[in-house]
Design brief:
Number of strands of chain A: 10
Helix content of chain A: 25-40%
Order of helices and strands of chain A: EEEHEEHEHHHEHEHEE
Bound molecules: adenosine-5'-triphosphate, magnesium ion
Strand order of the largest sheet of chain A: 6-7-8-3-9-10
Structural class of chain B: alpha+beta
Strand content of chain B: 15-25%
Distance between the termini of chain A: 25 Å
Largest sheet of chain B: 6 strands, mixed, barrel
Oligomer: heterodimer
Chain lengths: 232, 400
């Protein structure tokens, strides 16, 4: 697979939390560069700062120090409205715990980002339907999350994440709550999406899942290192 | 930017939330419901009552001054000579004395024990031209005292003349045969509605002199004075009072002079005072209702912090989040307002039944109710919605 231009660049990203008197440093200077079309796995043990990093990449959180460029734009310079646009159009989130709206159907959940992306009614419905078909939920569209299995909920979350056709798909432990078989199905879906040219950043603590990616970085104690499976 | 999908979705979510938290929503809306309900109910009642009074007063006529006398040992009432004096008071166009008595009337072989008989002159009909429903009013020839003609009201037609010839028909009163020349519409004023009319056959108008002959004492106890168009009502009223005082040997206890336009002013100012009072009650209860809504919205925002975080992660701008919560609070207060309006109109219907007045659906009161509840939703929803929109996405998403 041909890789495209650099779409994401981090230099010296740190994240600290003030905990009363003490400061806990979660990220200790992350340098990272991701190119279009990459399938990157961020591997690390629990509590190492993976989700924290993902939230910064997705512009949900801001780093304490360091610079972050997305599509060549320095994120620190952007205002709240522009950040909302980035979350809407540039990144699609798949959260560690699905985060579906419980009182909305699968279809309505997938529609949500499309509403915020100002898509017309007709286009929006077609798109939401298309996405749910893509993840194999054509017969579960009008089910509520509590009427779906974990794997089905995760697929709704994936459909929602890719609905606005974002350049980067951010997935935090996408198989964490799934059994092996459904986990493998989700990985299959990710390969498909990656083959279509979408950049995927997948966070996991599971080396086997990470092996699906084309590139692996490791996080340990807030430091990042490039590394293949052989070092695991 | 506004977007109909956002509004539509917010509306749907708002209704979902109200339904999901029925009890809490209802309790929250209670302030608005009671506030709007009380105001609508009271405004409708006040409007109905004052409308009724005003209608009655204007039936009695603007530009009219009434004189009422009470019998005393010295003077039974106003004699012809007294009336002449009053007619000559400066600014007076004419008089319409009312002589009324209750007597029996006979139609064919039927005797009606209780019949109101009132004597009227031609001037009365000139000033109340619209009361004749069919036939004609009295004319100058009828006033001679030996013309036996009469005009009956609708209830007399209903009670005594049903199926009989009305115009041209005959009624026996005090031994004289009266020919019916007209039917008139009796103004159903409050006094007559409150009195028990069930045994009364109806009212018959006869020429003034005929009625005077029936009473036998030749005096008048009540009359209406028509004031010239360009004359000053209050000045004429003063002059009339002075004249009456003169006729009654400076004793003011046995007569009253009043005019309906000043009574109308009184009703008017009483009504606006009531309206002001109601406005006060309204603002207080709407304030209470608004605080209730603000409280519920704050609870809702903190309960749904995670949802807000998620929406932001999916691309919602702060403005959109704010609109969503504003719509929720507006829907909440509008639903409350709607229930309140129904409640208020219900109260008004019942009150109208009890007071036997006409129920008037007041469009302005309904609009006011909706307007106020929408305003409450906007004003008191603003702060919680603003707070929601300013939440930091990651903190919100992490919240439990
Ligand atoms: N808001 C916060 N305040 C204080 N400390 C925090 C906060 N958020 C995260 N942390 C800390 O940052 C560290 C990294 O958290 P993070 O969620 O990024 O871990 P993770 O690598 O995603 O772990 P897991 O695999 O279990 O999801 C943890 O030690 C956590 O306690
Ligand atoms: Mg995590």
């Amino acid at each position: 697979m041909e890789l495209g231009e650099e779409i994401l660049k981090m230099e010296g990203i740190t994240k600290e939390y003030e905990m009363g008197e003490e400061t806990s440093v979660v990220l200790k200077g992350i340098d990272l560069s991701v190119r279009r079309g990459e399938f990157l796995a961020v591997l690390g043990p629990s509590g190492s700062g993976k989700s924290t990093l993902m939230n910064i990449i997705g512009c949900l959180d801001v780093p304490t120090n360091g610079d972050y460029w997305l599509h060549g734009k320095l994120i620190a310079d952007e205002d709240e409205t522009e950040l909302a646009r980035i979350r809407s159009k540039e990144v699609g989130f798949i959260f560690q715990s699905f985060h579906l709206l419980q009182r909305q159907t699968a279809f309505q959940n997938v529609e949500l980002p499309l509403i915020y992306a100002n898509m017309s009614d007709k286009e929006r419905r077609e798109r939401a339907e298309e996405m749910l078909i893509k993840v194999g939920l054509e017969d579960r569209m009008y089910h509520y999350p509590n009427q779906l299995s974990g794997g089905q909920q995760q697929r709704v979350a994936i459909a929602r994440a890719i609905a606005t056709n974002p350049t980067i798909l951010l997935a935090d432990e996408p198989t964490g709550a799934l059994d092996q078989k459904t986990g493998a199905q989700v990985m299959g879906l990710f390969h498909e999406l990656n083959d279509e040219g979408r950049t995927i950043i997948m966070i996991t603590h599971d080396a086997k899942i990470a092996s699906h990616a084309s590139r692996i970085v490791r996080i340990l104690d807030g430091n990042i290192s490039e590394g293949g499976l052989e070092d695991a | 930017m506004l977007n109909f999908a956002v509004i539509g979705q917010s509306l749907r979510m708002a209704l979902q939330n109200i339904r999901a938290n029925r009890m809490r929503s209802f309790l929250t809306m209670l302030g608005i419901i009671i506030g709007v309900g009380a105001v609508i109910g009271l405004v409708t009642i006040v409007e109905a009552v004052s409308g009724e009074l005003m209608g009655e007063f204007s039936d009695l006529g603007a530009g009219t001054i009434s004189i009422q006398t009470y019998q005393s040992i010295m003077k039974y009432g106003l004699t012809d000579k007294d009336l002449e004096v009053l007619r000559n008071v400066e600014g007076v166009e004419g008089l319409s004395p009312t002589v009324s008595l209750t007597t029996s009337s006979v139609v064919g072989k039927e005797v009606y024990e209780e019949t109101n008989v009132e004597g009227k002159n031609t001037l009365y009909f000139e000033h109340n031209s619209n009361i004749i429903l069919s036939g004609r009013a009295f004319n100058e020839q009828d006033m001679s005292g030996d013309a036996y003609v009469c005009i009956v009201d609708q209830s007399y037609v209903k009670n005594a003349l049903l199926g009989k010839q009305v115009l041209g028909g005959q009624i026996l009163l005090h031994g004289y045969r009266y020919t019916i020349i007209g039917i008139y519409k009796k103004s159903d004023n409050m006094m007559s509605m409150m009195s028990d009319d069930s045994t009364l056959a109806g009212t018959i108008l006869v020429p003034y002199k005929n009625a005077l002959n029936m009473t036998g004492n030749g005096v008048v106890n009540s009359l209406e004075v028509y004031v010239e168009d360009k004359a000053d009502m209050t000045k004429v009223e003063e002059r009339l009072r002075a004249t009456m005082k003169n006729l009654y040997n400076e004793n003011e206890d046995f007569f009253a002079v009043y005019n309906f336009s000043s009574l109308m002013d009184m009703v008017d100012s009483a009504t606006s005072m009531m309206s002001g009072l109601l406005g006060g009650i309204a603002s207080i209860s709407l304030l209470v209702g608004g605080i209730g809504i603000m409280n519920m919205m704050l609870v809702s925002v903190s309960e749904r912090t995670k949802e807000i975080g998620l929406r932001k992660a999916l691309g919602a701008t702060p403005g959109r989040i704010q609109i969503q919560f504003m719509i929720e609070s507006i829907v909440l207060s509008l639903v409350g307002g709607f229930i309140g309006i129904c409640l208020g109109e219900g109260i008004a219907v019942i009150a109208a039944k009890l007071m036997q007045t006409k129920f008037v659906l007041s469009g302005s009161a309904i609009l006011l109710g909706f307007g106020f509840s929408a305003a409450v939703g906007i004003i008191f929803g603003w702060m919680p919605a603003k707070r929601a929109s300013e939440l930091n996405p990651i903190d919100a998403l992490r919240a439990e």
